[in-house]
What does this fold into?
Amino acid sequence: MVNVLFCCVCQPVTLTHVLENINLFFAALFGVEMLLKVFGHGIYGYIQDGFNVFDGFIVLLRYIRAVLGSNWLQVTKLQQ
It folds into this structure.
């Protein structure tokens, strides 16, 4: 919830860059976690747990967003 509030307020450009870098760091960390689970459990064991599938989906969406740009999947643009 707090993350949504931070995304909705007008904030300095420096803070935006810092938050985006922190977001990329955690996306990489969760990606490594996902890969370790896939290698540890095997792909079939990984997808048997619904939480792993959900986490993997979120990680993949984050990487797609990083490739396509930060404005992808943005519902409204409050800063103009």
The chain is about 80% helix and 0% strand. The mean pLDDT is 79.
